[in-house]
Design a protein that fits this description.
The structure is a homodimer. The first copy, chain A, folds into two domains: 7-103, Nucleic acid-binding proteins (OB fold (Dihydrolipoamide Acetyltransferase, E2P)), CATH 2.40.50.140; 120-444, BirA Bifunctional Protein, domain 2. Chain A has helices at 54-60, 118-123, 125-128, 132-154, 194-204, 241-262, 264-269, 287-298, 310-324, 375-384, 393-400, 413-420; strands at 17-30, 33-40, 43-49, 68-77, 92-103, 158-159, 165-166, 178-180, 186-189, 206-214, 227-236, 284-286, 328-332, 355-360, 363-371, 406-412, 434-435, 438-439. The longest helix of chain A has 23 residues, at 132-154. In chain A, strands 6-10-11-16-15-14-13-12 form an eight-stranded mixed beta sheet, sandwiched between helices. By secondary structure, the first copy, chain A, is of the alpha+beta class. Chains A and B meet through strand 1, helix 3, helix 4, strand 6 and strand 7 of A and strand 1, helix 3, helix 4, strand 6 and strand 7 of B.
């Protein structure tokens, strides 16, 4: 491989010659001096072409933003008065000795870091992703993924790949994409890895899966995506849903610590603040208690609602923030009818489930809870919902041969990223959003 | 959470009372004594119900294999003559004090660890996955995933989620599944994250992605799957394809070390051996050299073939094994016409590409190489292939704004697992294989 020094490591090479490679971030032409800010994946540094290096000056005069270059340069300490203390490499400068253009760039459609509206942002995604802001968002998303896995693996969870092509609309919820499979058969795109992760509990007891899921929803809102990344986990030998909530609390606590350690620069870039995490448990209440509280405090007539409206979620998060210094709040015991067939009914609170939503900064980021583990009860629930057990023989087989009490959760990566960074729209936290009007730029034509 | 001791930790609790939870692996009824082998995710241990614990005896008499149970028990050291040195917990025994059935199991269709044919194995996947053999296979697969990520992250690669729903057949290779998208539009299932990972090189320079890809192939062989997990990586500022090969060598070396550390038990269970990895570089040759070698050594008239046949791949692997003590061999310089449009043509060897296949134990496990980074050259290649550049505007945008020389690879997780463990069929290394006759059991009906 070619010799190359990372821009983030230049301080180890002061007064020596190095080769760097990266993008021209900005060129500033000051008559006799040409300045190039050069960025690579590890940092950014100012380079200068001095008149005594004629070839370097000639090339520096031709390059523009987003040219990919390689440069041989001397790492100089800047004179005291030229030091910029607010920048990582603000105390050094590269004296450009040789310059090589690796790839040319056309004139930019707009400044890389310009604020543009969402459509422009997405229409030009391959370009706009290079902005400091977007690189910060998806660096944080990368670290969320690592924090998620590291925590679960250290707790004995096994990772598995759930299939995306499935034989039917497993949960009977509609909103499922249909595809032409082989030999004139139809197949479907999984709306969740739920049934497979339950099967896998029978195998490894504790499992997790990270992958895309698909929802054929016709909405185009700031909350919806037709394809998103689901962070799933499921584990056995629990007592009830509170065990699941307890593990999720530890997960979120670990994730926030991990982001604090790894992403402080990105949070600063995005002007975002780390979530408030209570020292002990997260606040929690039953759905009915939550609705009663909202009715009592706001006068709204909502106590008999079967679910939370978006404004209720926002209200409860503000309440938890003020009362418990927590950006998280659990809502439990949704009605049986509002939850999927596999949800465990609370024996001590008939008609309500041992399930929960975790609300975070105004929205639900996780649905979880205990699942039914008894084969005959599952069969009964399927029939009550008008679902054909013959479509579930594969899934039911796991329950025929002994399934311990178990539960788990599903969490959308993009929405979690959005809320962690206080963004306005989930699409900002989605690299290549699929929605009713957009697959890349394709549906715009 | 309920009190529970992992079976793998019982040696820390000798002569004390513990609570364990898990599955009845086997029950042996010896008249007055009933033995239960109990397994959890951390290990297996023999329990015994002694006549003085009447309730435990009564329950132990009723349980069968795959019942999920919880047991209060005393951890006893076995008398010298009862020690089984070949088993991890062969020197201890649980004296069962209290037993609780958490979930019943029907009579098994066949012994969990019985050898069955592939169709029976897959038809009963939720049950057969619990066998010692299958748990070993997918534990190794889990560790392959971790080794892959750990190596790349430690080398500065950023993970991203590639979309699965795409707007068109990007590479023009056919074999693509079509799905009903929204508003009467068609969309497709990605055959690879190739175009997206190249876009992402412009953003983070070094990226990787792990996720399902889809091939609408009508084959049903021991090598083919219609959905598999692709381990992708792509990185910029390379000199040529040899840089990509160099990183892949380090990856494979690290992966084998990781498996040696974490999966020796599983390799023993599966009677598999770790691959031979050369100390320095992996053997490599051009396709033409490989074909000439085969012709010279076997007399086969194959020197003008544009690709390797399966038997050639096997022959070359045996050759590398014998001559270089390597289970890996690179074949480079496939003809331009046999590679996708984005493949980089070798300026010094016109008509041939700076691309490679990595062969491992008889099959190709990776295709990789350098990609075209020049916008106009890419446009030319698209046109030469009869592909419409208008379908590539999004992708081409990344190249308009400066793309460094770059390359990468794609590697199928299931095939890699299969070959790592010397299995006979890729479906054995696929949790829930999708193929022409099977989506779970659905298409069998």
């Amino acid at each position: 491989m070619q010799d190359r020094t990372n821009i983030g490591d230049l301080h180890d090479h002061i007064d020596t010659e190095v080769t760097v490679a990266g993008y021209v971030d900005v060129r500033r032409d000051h008559g006799k001096l040409i300045f190039l800010d050069i960025r690579d994946r590890t940092g950014i540094v100012q380079g200068v072409a001095l008149p005594n290096h004629e070839e370097a000056v000639a090339i520096a005069g031709e390059v523009r933003s987003e040219f990919a270059i390689r440069a041989k340069a001397k790492v100089n300490v800047r004179p005291e008065k030229m030091v910029n203390k607010d920048q990582p490499n603000g105390d050094i400068e590269l004296e450009l000795l040789e310059l090589q253009v690796l790839a040319r760039a056309e004139e930019l459609p707009f400044e890389k870091d310009a604020e543009v509206n969402l459509d422009t942002l997405l229409d030009n995604r391959p370009f706009t992703l290079r902005s400091e802001r977007m690189r910060a968002i998806f660096k944080v998303q990368h670290e969320i993924l690592q924090a998620y896995r590291t925590f679960l693996i250290s707790n004995g969870f096994v990772e598995f790949e759930a299939p995306k092509i499935v034989g039917g609309d497993a949960e009977g919820g509609g909103n499922i994409f249909r595809l032409e499979y082989l030999k004139d058969k139809w197949a479907y795109l999984a709306t969740s890895p739920q049934l497979y992760k339950q099967i896998m509990v029978g195998v490894y007891e504790r499992v997790f899966s990270i992958g895309n899921v698909f929802r054929a929803e016709l909405h185009s809102t700031s909350r919806h995506l037709n394809e998103y990344t689901s962070l799933d986990a499921e584990f056995g030998f629990i007592e009830d849903h509170t065990d699941v909530m307890e593990v999720q609390v530890e997960l979120m606590r670990n994730m926030v610590s991990h982001l604090k350690e790894t992403c402080s620069t990105e949070f600063a870039t995005l002007n975002a603040s780390l979530p408030l995490v209570p020292v002990d448990e997260f606040p929690h209440m039953k759905l009915r208690e939550a609705l009663q509280l909202i009715a009592d405090e706001t006068g709204e007539d909502c106590v008999n609602e079967p679910d939370l409206a978006p404004e209720h979620e926002r209200w409860l998060c503000e309440y938890a923030n003020k009362k418990y210094a927590s950006d998280f709040i659990f809502i439990t015991h949704y009605p049986v009818a509002k939850r999927p067939f596999y949800t465990y009914e609370d024996e001590g609170d008939k008609g309500y489930t041992k399930s929960y939503d975790l609300l975070f900064r105004g929205v639900e980021i996780t649905t979880g809870g205990q699942r039914i583990h008894d084969h005959d009860m599952l069969l009964k629930r399927l029939e009550e919902r008008g679902l054909d057990p013959d479509n579930f023989t594969f899934y039911l087989m796991a329950f025929k041969y002994g399934m311990p009490p178990h539960g788990g959760w599903g969490m959308g990566l993009e929405r979690l990223t959005e809320k962690m960074l206080d963004l306005d729209n989930v699409k900002e936290a989605t690299l290549f959003p699929r929605e009713i009007n957009r697959i890349d730029t394709k549906l715009n034509n």
